[in-house]
Amino acid sequence: MDIGMGVNESHLNSSMDASAIVGIGLLVYTFYVFRLVRSLPWLRLHNASSRSNSFTKNGPLQIFVFLGSGGHTGEMLRILENYAPTLMNNGCTIHVGYSDNASKLKFESFAKSSIDKKSGSIHAVKYYEFGKAREVNASIFESIGTVIATLYTSLLHVLTIRASLRSKPHLILLNGPGTCCILALWFKIWEILDFTTSDSSNMVYVESLARINTLSLTGKILYYLSDMFVVQWPQLSEKYPRAKSFGVLT
């Protein structure tokens, strides 16, 4: 009889342990589903403006920008120059991602000249080199290799950048090529996984001025990941409900 009671008690304890594990699992699952809905703009059940907006916190602004190459870099520099009094004041820190040295040199020149003209004030500039997700005219198989390499190297940089932006007023400003998709993906993944803060990524994507009637491939992806999606032609904002148009920015 004692043996039978011992077996029943052991079975009961095992059942309770299993129930506790299932309960904890469901709790964690529910928590991350909530964070997923809260983090991805197109899944949100409420207006983005109701979120705790880490762009409006007091203190110097931390900005991350990515310089693609060629025209993408030129457009990003014009955005920063046109809005320098708003973005680059009060001792801000700019984290600059780049994929070619020419873009880095252009930003260094810009930081020395244009910002002063617009009364900007930069405390520090930090540079991060990213590989290109896809080279021009690369085949599908070649692109797979570069995408995998970019996924790995960009993850390490994103972790460093996010640590600098965390719990501070910050803005992630993107406008460029396919690498922006990988960066946006990592920023959103860590926004979902980091349960120690409720900060939004504050990710803004500005579509190229050249896109008048249709979005670029990067734009079609970032439309669902960015916290604010900006186009420069009104017909695009009419076609895409989440898009906002403030006129020509670049």
From TrEMBL:
Annotated localization: Endoplasmic reticulum membrane; Nucleus membrane
Molecular function in Gene Ontology: N-acetylglucosaminyldiphosphodolichol N-acetylglucosaminyltransferase activity; protein-membrane adaptor activity
Membrane topology, from the record: Single-pass membrane protein
BP-aspect Gene Ontology terms: dolichol-linked oligosaccharide biosynthetic process
GO CC annotations, alphabetized: cytoplasmic side of Golgi membrane; lipid droplet; nuclear membrane; UDP-N-acetylglucosamine transferase complex
Bilayer-crossing regions: 20-37, 171-190
Pfam families: Alg14 (PF08660)
Keywords on record: Endoplasmic reticulum, Membrane, Transmembrane, Transmembrane helix
Main location group: endoplasmic reticulum
Reported function: Involved in protein N-glycosylation. Essential for the second step of the dolichol-linked oligosaccharide pathway. Anchors the catalytic subunit ALG13 to the ER.
Similarity annotation: Belongs to the ALG14 family.
Quaternary structure note: Heterodimer with ALG13 to form a functional enzyme.
Protein name as annotated: UDP-N-acetylglucosamine transferase subunit ALG14
Species of provenance: Zygosaccharomyces rouxii
